[in-house]
Amino acid sequence: MHKLHRERLQSLFNEPTNDVVYLSGASVTHRYGTDFEYPFRQESNFLYLTGVQEPDFALVLVPSTGAYHLLAPRRDAMYAVWMGFVRTPEQLKQAYAPDHMHFTDELGDLLASLKPAAVHVIHDHDAARIRELGYTPDQSILTDALAWCRVIKSEGEKSELRKAARTASLAHREVMKSIRPGMNECELQAIHEFTCTRSGMRHQPYSGIFASGVGAAVLHYVENNRFIGEDDLFLMDAGAESNGYAADFTRTFPARGTFSDRQAAIYDIGLTMLESCLAEARPGVAMEDLHLKAARLLLEGFLNLGLIRGEVDELMEANIFALFFPHGLGHFLGLDTHDVGGYPKGVERIDRPGLRYLRARRVLEPGMVITIEPGIYFIPALLEPAFENPEQARFLNVESLRSYLDFGGIRIEDNLIITDDGHENLTDVPKSRADIEAWMR
Ligand code: GLY
Ligand code: MN
Ligand code: MN
Question: Distance between CA 247 and CA 124 in Å, rounded?
């Protein structure tokens, strides 16, 4: 898989060139000047090109010959005493299959033998190192080139994403079965992380959101420490990570196992937003069009409930949807949860409430992996000012909406691989009300 990824990157250098690529991997970081280490996570581009999941490595790629040089840190006996097993260069060569193996302190010698005109780098610290050694770093293309490579997933990547999704599905199902009013949100987080860890997935791709009641109206709520009320909805946005590849799922379900009529009405609008976007998720469709479709469905649902008034077109024009759905419909997913490539050069963000935060403004192509995650929230910080703003208040049934200020919110999020004629949905967690209630029973 990583060899294919390197070939994909090197194929972009199609002119005769003696430029090379230099990229260092991540090092261990410590908590505020202490000797306490944060869990190590490899830099995503480095992981994409090498599969190396240990600290302090670097690579040099030579596009003109296709050569792959892997540089390993030189470890002494004290490292073996305190930190971990030290492998010989031969063992590392066996494990990672580079064409040539070096130590990182041999970078100068390696570059002297390659005599590159320019060295393509991403990070400032890599540029500084190259300059120190007397060569010219070029930071203008490698970031975009790697984003271009990473947007279309290889078969190996799809298989990792499926593994992450299987585990995240299992973990979501466990939490749905376990929740009871009176539990603390952190207990559900523990069940989620226990399920992932015992499946061998020891890292989470992002800080999970385990939000009951009003906490669900905070888009990236991570306090996860509230006691869950009898009548609360519970919004869980949590994934799993398989060899660096993320799952990113959200489900919203009632703590006591059955939706109230009020919860059901809002939930079903969210589910319609999701299902309608899923029905259209295929090559050729633009992410922003899906977002606008979801926004219209929210407005239609709210008109039916009498929460807003007016015509859908004028409500769209006035961006009323963004009061209740203030984030983007979805994003690319891969080695990063908010994966690279959402805005290639020349594509700008749409300066409009709600759409402004869309993380991928792309036309879908086979091999892209995306989330679709419509949400409906009653966020006092957005609604209270809107109630006082005549331009917005004229569309709002202020009296009814006030009674929803303690509702929280809902979000439902699936992960999709775009295929030649549609998509493969990786998320296997109940999402219709009937299926959720049956599973919880
Ligand atoms: N969990 C972050 C997101 O859904 O985008
Ligand atoms: Mn999410
Ligand atoms: Mn997401």
Answer: 30
